[in-house]
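Suppose you are handed a protein chain with no further information: no name, no annotation, nothing but its sequence. What can you learn? This example shows the usual starting point.
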Amino acid sequence: MRTTIQQLSYILILLTIFSSCSKDDEKEIIEENYEMNIKVEYTKWSESYPDEGSKIYIYFNRQMEDFTAMRYDADGVYSSDDKIIRPDQTDIADKNGLAIIDFRDHLNIKFSLMVESRYTGLRAFMYFEKYVFAKEHAFSFFKSNPE
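A reasonable first move is to predict its three-dimensional structure. Written in structure tokens, the prediction is:
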């Protein structure tokens, strides 16, 4: 009887060892995406076109209120009599109107994003309290007097 118990014990130990080496227990590696895709386009005669060359400005730890009563100078710079705000990061939309910004080094940071249309000259602002990485953010500019 004792031999049977010992043999069962060995079998249980071996089963435990082999089951712990199973491929089913391997952890799934999840690839995280920290990129923000920005699409910039303009509308002319009810048709949308990529707004190639549009500028994207990012201001970390800045809220919309930080820009209140400030004038826009150029190249993403805002100023008042006692303060200047410069962008922390910039990008330019490619020929498809796309810009991809990597936020890997800036996680959990509040930020404002400003897009300046090359075609219309208009600007659009967005504020992100805590960024959820969406597939794409689109900015569409409409020019009331198409050329």
